[in-house]
Amino acid sequence: MDTAIDLLKEQLSRAIVGQEDLIQEMLIALIARGHILLEGPPGIAKTTAAKALAGAIDAEFQRIQFTPDLLPADVTGSEIYQQDQAKFQFSPGPIMHDIVLADEVNRAPAKVQSALLEAMGERQVTVGSQSYALSPIFFVIATQNPIEQEGTYSLPEAQLDRFVMKIKVDYPDAQTELAVMRLVRQQDQYAQAGAATPTCSVEDILRLQKAALEIYMAESVENYIVHLVMSTRRPQEYFAEHGEEISTLIEYGASPRATLALERCARARAILDGRDFVTPDDVKAVAPAVLRHRILPSFEAEARGYTTDRIIHSLITYLPLV
C-alpha cells in the first residue's frame, strides 16, 4: 500500500477513536475528488474528524460555522472598493482554502447553501464579473444534526446530489466511549489544537487521485455500476420477480451523477486496499454512502418502515452481476 495512505490512516486512527468506517469513507471521498456530508447526533466527533483529516495533510484548512444570518459573501468572499486605488479588489472568503469544514450546513438559508454547493460543483466562485478557481484538492466536509430541527433549512435532494457521499455517524459503543474519555483526559497530542504533524502533502493527495483514475476496471464492473443505478430508477423492470418487495419502494431514483460517483469511489476504495483493479465488492461497499441521499423512498416504503439503507441493501442483494 502507498506509504502516504499508511501514514494518513495511522494518524487518523489515533485521532478518531473507534470510527474506522468513517475514516475509510472520508479517504475514499477525498481520493475520488468528491465532497462529503456527515450526519449524526451532536458530540460524536464529526467536527473532530474533519479537523483531524486537515491536520494530517499539509493543507490550508478553514471552518465555516453556518448560521441563519450568514450571507453568500461570507462564504465566497466579496469585492471591496479600494479608495486609494480607485477600484474594486477581491477579498477571498473562507471557501478559498484546501479543506473546508461547513459546520451545521443545514442552519444556513438557501442562498448560502447554494453558494457553497455551486463552488463544490464548479470548483470556482464568481464574484461580480470575475471567476476565481478553487484549490486543486478543494474538499468540503459538511456536517448536519438530524435531531435538532428548529432553525434549520433542509438541503433539497437536488443539492444533496452534489455530495459524493452521505456518511452516517452513530453513537459509539461502551468500549469506544471509554477510550475516547481516556484520550481526552490524557490530553493526547491530537486533542491539543495545532499540535498535529502533517503526514502527507497536497501533492501526495493529487497523485493518489490521479492513480485512482488509472487503475483497471473491467467492463463487467462498469456494467454493474450502470445497472445498479438504473435499477433505482426502474425497479419494476429489474426486480419484477420479487413482486412488490422492491419494485414499489422507490419514488425517485439516482441521477447520472450517482453513476460517476460510484465509479470514482469504487476506484478510490481499491487504491486504499492496495489493489490496481476494481472488483464488484468495491462497488457494493461504497454503494450505501453514495446512494442513500440520492434515492427518495416511496410513501409505501415509509409506511412499511423501509429506510433508504435497507432499500439499497435489497438492491445489492437481488441485482445479479452483469
Automatic annotation (TrEMBL):
Q: Where does the AAA+ ATPase domain lie?
A: 32-173
Pfam families to which the protein is assigned, alphabetical: AAA_3 (PF07726), AAA_lid_2 (PF17863)
Matches recorded under SMART domains: AAA (SM00382)
Q: Does the keyword Nucleotide-binding apply?
A: yes
Keywords, ordered alphabetically: ATP-binding, Nucleotide-binding
The UniProt GO MF terms for this protein read: ATP binding; ATP hydrolysis activity
Electron transport found in the keyword field? no
* Classification via Gene3D superfamilies: Magnesium chelatase subunit I, C-Terminal domain (1.10.8.80), P-loop containing nucleotide triphosphate hydrolases (3.40.50.300)
* Entries under InterPro entries matching the protein: AAA+_ATPase, ATPase_AAA-3, CbbQ/NirQ/NorQ/GpvN, ChlI/MoxR_AAA_lid, P-loop_NTPase
Family to which this protein belongs: Belongs to the MoxR family.
| PANTHER family linked to this entry | MAGNESIUM-CHELATASE SUBUNIT CHLD (PTHR42759:SF1), MOXR FAMILY PROTEIN (PTHR42759)
Name the chain's protein.
MoxR family ATPase
Q: What's the source species for this entry? A: Maribrevibacterium harenarium
